[in-house]
Task: structure prediction
Amino acid sequence: MQFENWLNTGILHIKSIYCPPLEKDATCDCLVIGGGFAGLHAALRLVDAGKEVILLEKGICGSGSSGRSAGFLTPHSEEDLNTLIEDYGIDEAKTVAGMPAGGVKLIIDAIKKYSLDCDFRAQDSIYLALHKGAISTLKYEMETLKKLGEPFKFYNKSALRAVHPGEGYEAGLRYHGTYGINSLAYTQELKNVLIKKGVKIYEGTEVHGITGNKAITHLGSVKAKNILVCIDKMKTEFDKEVSKKYYHMQTFLSVSEPLSKNELKSIFPSGNLMCWDSDLLYMYYRIIGENRLLLGGASYLTTYYHKHYNSPSAINKVIAKFKKRFSSVSHIDFNYYWNGLIDVTKDLTPIADYDPKNKSIQYTLGCAGLPWAAFCGDYIARRVLDKNTKDLSQYLGMHRTFPISDGLQEILGKIISFGLSHLKLNYG
Result:
């Protein structure tokens, strides 16, 4: 198995327009910092409204969390729906649940409107209970789906084997209206659309800081009426207080050799599904182009590790776990692997809010999932265009109440604070 820049693997066929770095000072109506799903969708909304837009990306568009994603498009937050109801009540929970659902729609609308070549697949998804205790979690989620009026199907252990016969699964909850994409291809395809619309995109351009309404890069600067910061790893030089609000959970992905029809049917006898399990650090997988298995997960030692961890040991454990559950494919090889970071907040709901010291600057952070990123990027762009845009700071505000306060975080440290917060959200 090869650790490889996923951009160069033979399985990802990227058609990209080269965007050279910014090498001068520039001005514009709106500056977008970050070329992931949030930044690209913010730029799309703004340029379609007639704004002069510049987008800066330190790598290439999609080279951060967005392009390293497994490509799940599910209209559900990382946070269980029943937790949303407990926090907000049914009506407001519908509002919050509608945000990532809105992100899914934005992505699909763009794919269809611009014919984006990104391995788009309609695939139901299934949440798998690893032990009998987790069945109650699935049933609780099922009751919540009923209250929210969302479609689903529940499988007990025996019924589950007909659709997904893995060893050790006790039950499954199937969601409809979910999709899969090649997320890196999507970002590059949408980048090409934005260029044709007139957005000036500069890749290989890292922003070192923001002074007033000016972003400073290594070779130039951009002055803008509005600055939209849509990045997954923010330097403390941007805003020390803002940087306290998010953390990175590290995950790993691997891609198998192409599977035969029989191998594929042994995993998904009745059709392909996107899967994840009930573990706190869940394993997730789906079928991508050329009938390859995309498999992701992490370990407790590496998830909250503060630096990129490139060893294959973490993903090898995930692969071993998968092969134990599906002995029919225990012989298959995994050709490539890579690591990525999931940008999260302490309550697993993103931040999309104004800078408390400068209302011309907005941040979107902690978008755990592509739909959330698309929604938040579009939302902060809509706030630039229309000051009467519905205020969602009650849910997405920077200073909302989190499970562990910033003050306590200073004492415990970031790793412990975020780990304890996520443990509480998953196990109460």
About this structure: DSSP finds twelve helices and 20 strands in the chain. The longest strand covers residues 334-344. Residues 155 and 293 are 23 Å apart (CA to CA). Residues 2-68+184-245+347-411 form a domain with the FAD/NAD(P)-binding domain fold (CATH 3.50.50.60).
